[in-house]
Amino acid sequence: MGTFAVNNFGDTRSGGLAGPMGLFIIVLLSIATVLLIRNMNKRVRRLPDSFPDVRQTQREAEIARLNADLERSEAGTAADGVDADRSAEPPAATEDEVKAVTTERDRGSADGDARGV
């Protein structure tokens, strides 16, 4: 009857910080979870009850685009006469223009590199 409990697990004091550190991490994660849930609830409450119909929004955008194109074309017909008057006279600076001369070497690319891309 002389059986005594024997400690076969080694020194129990060396890992004495593991328990409190684990508790600290669990508490920290719990606080972060609560804050995230509160934030998401606020964001969900701000959402509208229903969203607008995508097809209706596309129709309205198409109508607005067509109206803008129509207004631009109507304004363009009035400005065509002005442009026609301007183009009747040749510009005075045409003699001063620099004409580009393309050589065999320059045909490869815009920067003069004849290597293929």
Quickly list its features.
117 residues, mainly alpha, membrane, transmembrane helix
General description of the model:
The chain has 117 residues and is mainly α. The chain has a domain at 53-79. 55% of the residues lie in helices and 0% in strands. The longest helix has 35 residues, at 54-88. The mean pLDDT is 76.
How would a textbook summarize the main sheet?
Answer: none
- The amount of helix comes to 40-55%
Number of helices: 2
Measure the end-to-end span: 93 Å
Query: What is the oligomer described by this structure?
Result: single chain
Mean pLDDT: 76
Rg, please?
Answer: 40 Å
Number of strands: 0
What structural category characterises the helix and strand content?
Answer: mainly alpha
Uncertain runs with pLDDT below 50, 5 residues or more? none
**Overall 3D shape:** elongated
Q: What is the strand content?
A: under 5%
- The run of helices and strands is HH
Organism: Paractinoplanes deccanensis
Transmembrane segments: 17-37
Biased composition (Basic and acidic residues): 65-74, 96-117
Protein name: Preprotein translocase subunit TatA
